[in-house]
Design a protein that fits this description.
- The protein has 89 residues and is mostly helical.
- It is flat and about 50 Å long.
- The termini are far apart.
């Protein structure tokens, strides 16, 4: 077995990399929408915008769910930044 075969499930082909790659692609949506707004049909723009909002807001909710109730108040700024980061320009 070669070294590459030993580490087949690590690195870019591993299942752990899939969410990171997906997050990266979702992060590209705002600049794509800004750059191509004039050329995109409204339905395509809407579909991409909804996908972006759903993913970003789901990530924000996941962050809130991880917090213990007693630490929510001191993390309010971070929670708000995550929500504000979901806005499209």
């Amino acid at each position: 077995m070669t070294e590459l075969e030993k580490h087949r499930d690590e690195g870019f082909e591993s299942a752990a990399m899939l969410p990171k790659g997906f997050s990266f692609m979702i992060g590209l949506i705002p600049s794509y929408l800004k750059r191509c707004r004039e050329d995109l049909p409204r339905a395509h723009y809407g579909r991409l915008a909804k996908l972006y909002y759903c993913c970003r807001l789901t990530a924000a909710l996941s962050y809130v769910d991880l917090l213990d109730d007693e630490y929510v108040e001191e993390n309010a700024g971070s929670i708000n930044r995550r929500i504000d980061g979901s806005k499209l320009g």
